[in-house]
Amino acid sequence: MKIEIPTPLRVYTNQQATVTVEARTVAQAVASLTALYPEFQKHLYTPDGKLRSFVNLYLNDEDVRYLPGREETAVGPTDTLSIIPSIAGGCWPQGQTRLRRKN
Questions:
Q1: HSE-up of 60 (CA within 13 Å, CB side)?
Q2: In the prediction, which pLDDT does 23 show?
Q3: Which strands make up the sheet holding 62-63, listed edge to edge?
């Protein structure tokens, strides 16, 4: 199966946009990825082995969290797993609490 790597995390896959692995489940696919690229592990999982809350996995455009089998969902050789980190941030300009309308 193919795993799509987001641009900010490609530094851990030698700049590869996709990595091909053999796996039977989503969990095995991610385990194969981290076996190939061990530095990737700490960016996907907490020290106690849980998927980080800001990491989203999509199997063929379906959010893995909402699939009946979640990370134990079966995968095949033609499937695509996308790793999508949540993006947060931004702030109001210095001293402003909201955008002001110019008249």
A1: 9
A2: 94
A3: 18-20, 2-4, 80-85, 55-59, 62-63
pLDDT tens column, 39-89: 888 888 888 888 777 888 999 989 898 999 888 999 999 999 999 887 655
* Topology (CATH) of 2-85: Ubiquitin-like (UB roll) (3.10.20)
- Which residues in 18-48 are b (16+ Cβ under 10 Å) and which e? ebebebeebbbbbebbbeebeebeebbeeee
Which string of DSSP letters, residue by residue, matches 71-98? GG-B--TT-EEEEEE------PPTT-SS
pLDDT at 50: 81
Label residue 90 exposed, middle or buried (CB < 10 Å: 0-12, 13-18, 19+).
Answer: exposed
Looking at residue 24, its amino acid is R
The answer to whether 17 touches 9, Cβ cutoff 8 Å, is no
